[in-house]
Amino acid sequence: SHPFYRAISLYRIPLPFFERAFISISVVIFLLVLLLALYLAQLTRFGRTIYAIGGNEQSALLMGLPVARTKILVYTFNGFCSALAGVVFSIDLLSGYGLYTNGLELDAIAAVVIGGTQLTGGIGYVFGTVFGVLIEGLIQTLIIFQGNLSSWWTKIAVGLLTLLFIVMQSAFASRSAKKARLSASVASDDKAGGALNLPVKPVVSKGGSTQ
């Protein structure tokens, strides 16, 4: 391993007020990326445009939002985060091998879905994804410390949990769509009924008779 990599991997930042407690460089990088993601998603026009595109791309186009440019920036940021994650992973292991992360695609999707992000788009939370990562870590830790189960049970448990959340999202989406259609129907009926019940003014003819 390179001396620079080894120095970064072994570097520890002590925590005040906690005896023998410390954090590594990878934790610092994670917190910085988390803060950057929160800022971009919640406090910038770029983040609001992403939510708009996820909700309805055609509507975003009609509103004049830069859909194509935003997509390019999203994929660019995604590639940057993937590359940074690979560097941090190699720092922790002091080695690099492409097949180390084989199969992590399911874990990445599961963390996002468990965190409350809808696969249909438009709804997503950065802290929710962090919660999903913690849930996956808890599942993996429980299975490892159990001792009698294969590591494949981690994938099975994560897959089942992801499926459960997808089914729940579909049920909630269907229920919300049904309520929206019902509300629109009631509003339309009320509007039509109001038009039929408009007061009719009497018409007085020249002869004085009322019609």
General form: globular
Instruction: Going across the biggest sheet, name each strand in turn.
Output: 1-2
Largest sheet, in brief, is:
2 strands, antiparallel
Number of domains: 2
How much helix is in the residues?
over 70%
Strand elements, count: 2
Distance between the termini: 101 Å
pLDDT < 50 stretches: none
Q: Give the C-alpha Rg.
A: 28 Å
Kindly name the structural category: mainly alpha
Order of SSEs? HEEHHHHHHH
**Oligomerization state of this entry?**
single chain
Mean of pLDDT? 82
Task: Tell me the number of helical segments per DSSP (H or I, 4 or more residues long).
Answer: 8
Percent of residues in beta strands: under 5%
Describe the structure concisely for a colleague.
The chain is an all-alpha fold and 211 residues long. 70% of the residues lie in helices and 3% in strands. Strands 1-2 form a two-stranded antiparallel sheet.
